[in-house]
């Protein structure tokens, strides 16, 4: 009996970065939310986002549709927030970044940093006033910590000052790289109280006199999210807008600690998107008469990407409370680990996609 020389054509499954179906750890209703987000990102964002990336602009038209997903404030209970588990919130951050990490940053700054500051450091009245409209995306939030001269060293050296005058605080200084601030409604400004030298947080409405936000142009990465240079010049904020449960940078750090985990999830999402784009390309791009995915060197790169994604996903899903007590607590190291794996995935995918308009280039600019 002669053996066949060609294998029959088989229908390949759709590229899937969650190869081991780790998302099965979520329950049915959580997976339905994730699917809703995926459908929106794939049908509304993916088809148009490359153009926005090229133009350095934000797709404002997509905000109403995104609002309908009702995912702002995931992980926070009450105050009109989406609620749910932090695990679901992480998966949603990953799912958004899988299609576009700038869009994920817009969401992370609003829902994580800005809403999170109020949720963790605001009084009951402040939460009731600000969180419901922010959860409905009627008010868009920003988070102003970084300054032109102060980045990593924010804990000890903020130059922006807050001076109390009766029931008013007067803010002076500059904040740089502040996501959403060119078009948002409210910014959490972190400033050093000149009286006790401690960092305090203020809910500042962007239309307040003395608050100016200018767009930072020509970014090389995360080009869709709009970042601002904010100048505060005798910007007067009422005492009722000072985050009442924030007394020092320790409280600011609580917000950063919470949101850092979501950035790690976003890194997994970016890696997933790169892997799926690279696999789809390798399955269709033919050289020497067959798809390049049939060559073992290409398979090796794809398998490394998938291995890194799976490792990152497992680290994210392994509940911290179940970690052996002698293990170090996952903190910046987890973000760094995921970011390193993302960088490797990005490098592998970019080897195969040199065109400037290829989605892998947007997802994985080396500077991201
Ligand atoms: C696209 C984008 C969006 C952003 N959005 C926001 C936002 O919404 N709100 C906000 O407040 N900020 C935002 N940032 C600012 C961001 O948080 C800062 O860039 C970050 O804190 C680093 O600060 P820096 O850029 O001043 O770098 P620097 O602190 O000057 O660091 C420069 C380099 O030195 C290294 N370095 C610094 N200190 C040490 C050390 N002790 N040991 C070893 N290496 C060190 C750093 O790792 C880095 O490689 C954004 C930045 C970007 C690029």
What number is the mean pLDDT?
Answer: 89
Gyration radius (Cα, Å) is: 22 Å
Q: How far do the termini sit from each other?
A: 57 Å
Beta strand %: 15-25%
CATH superfamily of the largest domain: Acyl-CoA dehydrogenase/oxidase, N-terminal domain
Helicity, in percent?
Answer: 40-55%
CATH architecture of the largest domain: Orthogonal Bundle
Low-confidence stretches: 320-324
The SSE order reads: HHHHHEHEEEEEEHEEHHH
**SS-derived structural category:** alpha+beta
CATH class of the largest domain: Mainly Alpha
Number of domains: 3
Quaternary class: single chain
As for the CATH topology of the largest domain, it is Butyryl-Coa Dehydrogenase, subunit A, domain 1
Question: What ligands can be seen in this structure?
Answer: flavin-adenine dinucleotide
Largest pleated sheet? 7 strands, mixed
Count the DSSP helices: 10
Based on CA inertia axes, which overall geometry fits? elongated
Number of strands: 9
From the structure above, extract its key features:
Butyryl-CoA Dehydrogenase, subunit A, domain 3, two-stranded antiparallel ribbon, 15% strand, alpha+beta, Butyryl-Coa Dehydrogenase, subunit A, domain 1, 10 helices, 368 residues, seven-stranded mixed β-sheet, binds flavin-adenine dinucleotide, Butyryl-CoA Dehydrogenase, subunit A, domain 2
Could you walk me through the main structural features you see in this protein, from its secondary elements to its overall organization?
The chain has 368 residues and is of the alpha+beta class. It has 3 domains: 22-135, Butyryl-Coa Dehydrogenase, subunit A, domain 1, CATH 1.10.540; 141-250, Beta Barrel (Butyryl-CoA Dehydrogenase, subunit A, domain 2), CATH 2.40.110.10; 252-363, Up-down Bundle (Butyryl-CoA Dehydrogenase, subunit A, domain 3). The protein is 45% helix and 15% strand. It contains 10 helices and 9 strands. The strands form 2 sheets. Strands 1, 2, 3, 4, 5, 6 and 7 form a 7-stranded mixed β-sheet that branches. Strands 8-9 form a two-stranded antiparallel sheet. Helix 7 (249-284) packs antiparallel against helix 8. Flavin-adenine dinucleotide (FAD) is lined by residues 109, 143-146, 151-152, 177-179, 222, 227.
């Amino acid at each position: 009996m002669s053996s066949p020389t060609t294998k029959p054509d088989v229908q390949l499954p759709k590229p899937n970065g969650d190869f081991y179906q780790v998302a099965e750890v979520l329950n049915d209703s959580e997976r339905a939310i994730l699917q809703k987000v995926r459908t929106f990102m794939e049908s509304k964002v993916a088809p148009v986002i490359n153009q926005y990336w090229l133009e350095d602009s934000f797709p404002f038209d997509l905000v109403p549709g995104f609002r309908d997903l009702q995912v702002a404030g995931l992980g926070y209970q009450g105050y009109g927030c989406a609620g749910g588990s932090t695990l679901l919130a992480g998966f949603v951050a990953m799912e958004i970044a899988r299609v576009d990490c700038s869009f994920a940053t817009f969401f992370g700054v609003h829902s994580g940093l800005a809403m999170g500051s109020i949720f963790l450091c605001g009084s009951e009245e402040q939460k009731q006033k600000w969180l419901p409209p922010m959860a409905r995306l009627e008010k868009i939030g920003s988070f102003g910590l970084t300054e032109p001269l102060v980045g990593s060293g924010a804990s000890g050296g903020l130059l922006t000052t807050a001076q109390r005058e009766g029931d008013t605080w007067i803010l002076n200084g500059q904040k740089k790289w502040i996501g959403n601030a060119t078009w948002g409604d409210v910014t959490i400004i972190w400033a050093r109280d000149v009286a006790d030298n401690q960092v305090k947080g203020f809910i500042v409405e962007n239309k307040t006199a003395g608050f100016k936000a200018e767009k930072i142009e020509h970014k090389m990465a995360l080009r869709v999210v709009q970042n601002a240079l904010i100048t505060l010049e005798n910007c007067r904020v009422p005492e009722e807008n000072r985050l009442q449960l924030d007394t020092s940078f320790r409280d600011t750090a609580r917000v950063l600690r919470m949101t850092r985990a979501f950035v790690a999830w976003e890194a997994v999402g970016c890696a997933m998107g790169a892997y799926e784009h690279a696999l789809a390309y390798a399955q269709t791009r033919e050289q020497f008469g067959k798809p390049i995915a049939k060559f073992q060197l290409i398979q090796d790169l794809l398998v490394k990407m998938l291995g890194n994604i799976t490792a990152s996903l497992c680290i994210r899903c392994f509940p911290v409370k179940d970690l052996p007590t002698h293990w170090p607590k996952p903190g910046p190291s987890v973000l760094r680990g995921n970011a390193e794996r993302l960088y490797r995935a990005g490098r592998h995918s970019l080897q195969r996609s040199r065109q400037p308009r290829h989605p892998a280039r947007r997802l994985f600019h080396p500077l991201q």
